């Protein structure tokens, strides 16, 4: 979620994490956040749908850790794919 203030042009004041609702502005460093985004096209089950999730640093790496764990578990017993922690 982006919070904007009126100005000559819209300026993003902060980006709020869509999981924990924390602000992502770091004093002296600006906005520090990651995005998870999908835009589904023709022929997909979700044709025309667009998703964008803003994540603070902690939530981003927690989501990334979950994706890595799912990847490891899904390939754990597959003889064609050697186990890799990547």
Number of helices: 1
**Poorly predicted parts:** none
Approximate strand percentage: 25-35%
Order of helices and strands: EEEEEEH
Molecular structure report:
- The structure is a single chain.
- The model has no long low-confidence stretch (mean pLDDT 89).
- The protein has one helix and six strands; from the N terminus they run E-E-E-E-E-E-H.
- The protein has one domain.
- It has 86 residues and is α+β, with helices and mostly antiparallel strands.
- Helices cover 22% and strands 29% of the residues.
- The two termini are 30 Å apart.
- Keywords: Plasmid.
Short précis:
It contains 1 helix and 6 strands, in the order ββββββα.
List the defining traits of the structure above.
plasmid; 86 residues; flat; 1 helix; alpha+beta; two-stranded antiparallel sheet; two-stranded antiparallel ribbon
SSE layout:
Layout: E1 2-5, E2 11-15, E3 25-26, E4 30-31, E5 34-39, E6 50-55, H1 57-75
Antiparallel strand pairs: 1-2, 3-4, 5-6
């Amino acid at each position: 979620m982006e919070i904007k203030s009126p100005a000559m042009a819209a300026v993003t004041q902060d980006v709020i994490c869509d999981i924990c609702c924390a602000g992502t502005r770091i004093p002296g460093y600006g906005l520090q956040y990651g995005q998870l985004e999908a835009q589904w096209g023709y022929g997909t089950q979700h044709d025309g749908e667009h998703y964008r999730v803003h994540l603070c640093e902690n939530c981003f790496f927690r989501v990334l850790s979950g994706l890595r764990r799912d990847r490891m578990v899904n390939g754990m017993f597959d003889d064609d794919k050697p186990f890799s922690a990547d």
